[in-house]
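agent> Task received from the user: take the single chain below, predict its 3D structure, and emit structure tokens. No templates, no multimer pairing.
agent> Plan: (1) validate residues, (2) run structure prediction, (3) serialize to tokens, (4) report one or two observations.
agent> Step 1 OK, no nonstandard residues flagged.
tool_call: predict_structure(input=
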Amino acid sequence: MKSLRSKFFINLLAIIILSLAAVALALNWSLDRYFFDYQLQETARELDEYEDYLNNLYQENRNLAEIRSMVEEYASANNLIYHPFRRGHGSMMRDMHPDSRGMARMQAMMEEGFEIFVGGESLGYLSWPEENDESLLAAEISARTAEFSRDIYGFLLPLGLSLAALAALLSYYISRKLTEPIREFAGAVKEIRKGDYQVEISRKYPEELQELYLEINELGRRLNYLEKIRRESASDLSHELRTPLNNILNYLTAVEDGYLEINEEILQELQEEIDRLIELTNRLDDLSLVEKKMFNLKQEDVNLQEFFAQVDQKFSRQAENNGLSFKSRLSLPENNFRLDREALVIILENLLSNAIKYTDAGGRIELTARTEGGKLKFAVTDSGMGIEKEELDLIFERFYRTDKSRNRKTGGTGIGLAITRELVESLKGKIDVESSSRGSRFMVEIPLE
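)
tool_result: status=success, residues=449
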């Protein structure tokens, strides 16, 4: 298979050569046509000037016999045939005004001859001998045209070959310059495929390639980060699974060996460890379901007033049970909109559950929702622990957790916000976050139908 550079070089060179060939053909056609016409016009001009000379001479002496004699001498000297009588009926020259200078008159002159008018009267006409059924005038002009064309092509041929050679060099240079970035991009992607995510393209490229090389650099950084998260996530997931399983195993071993007796406290501890395992597996199942839902959204009519009223009722109780103040500010229309209700439920539950989880007792939670510009806009604000600035771009990654202590209350699984972002994007919306030491605010926009 030919390389892109070879294909580009061959195609560009072919275009240039075909263009030169087209110019040569057009020039050849133009020479044949316009130079022939030019020679014919020059011949007609010379005869017109001679006719004017005869008229001036006639104005001086009024002697037509002398002028006829001069015309005979002129014809003999220029290899012309003088017909001292006017053409009969049907002559094109006869029907044309003597001052006519058009191509029709010149064509008639070449075919029938040049009629001479002196003092308003015809003195006959001049014609050219014929050879092989062709006027010697036409043959002579054709010969001069061919000679002129040979001279022109004698100059243009080496020039064209030089231009073709230059075009070949230019095509090679351009193809190399244009494909060089692609080769570098391909090399960078190959290194990324091998697992070297530290690759970065530092050269500056034209605007058309600028975005591509920036995206490749960003891809490398992103994959490098995701590889780091993957390793950490594997460790975290292993720990999350191992800790409750080891605790359960230790309790059961102690009971089996007789060191402990089954009582309500031990059962409660076992139940908590089992709940942790269930939560983790449920979250992993949620993540799998979300990935499927991204390609299978179920649109249905949703009354936003009723929907957010139910959300408010549910989470106001949860907030109250956790010693938090919950406030809703809703400005929503009464009509229905086509939305995926299940996806919207998961998004709001994740955001509000996180807000409650990361806010200490005595804090506040606020839910705002409105429609604006054909979009549903809602936000969840808390007065919790906040998120470090350098972590704002990371919190939506799978298994990433701002709480590294794995505290049972706030540690979580690091999957909830990843699910939230993927669902928002599947609904063609966007999610942003702002945070400080006074709390966090998650803002979501989703287009409405």
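agent> Step 4: summary for the user.
Residues 398 and 415 are 5 Å apart (CA to CA).
agent> Done.
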